[in-house]
């Protein structure tokens, strides 16, 4: 089972940017995921940035999703937080 099939298998969106090769979920050892997401928000261009499943006070919890539009000019720079199956605007720790 490749990543895309696995992702659909666990209920992920069938039009996920992951399946199109335009999104990654990342973590950086030694840097909390809220710090990482904040740095990306403030320094890089992206379509969608999502701080996923992060729990305040647990720096290594969750991960950071970074998605890109097909064309650089179409990147919307949307930052969201996903927690308890709910998306919130911005990065909320
Ligand atoms: Zn992701």
UniProtKB/TrEMBL annotation:
Domain of life (superkingdom): Bacteria
Annotated ranges, domain Peptidase M15A C-terminal: 8-44
InterPro entries referenced in this protein's UniProt entry, alphabetically: Peptidase_M15A_C, Zn_M74/Hedgehog-like
A Pfam short name: Peptidase_M15_3
Name listed for the protein in its UniProt record: Peptidase M15A C-terminal domain-containing protein
Organism this protein belongs to: Alginatibacterium sediminis
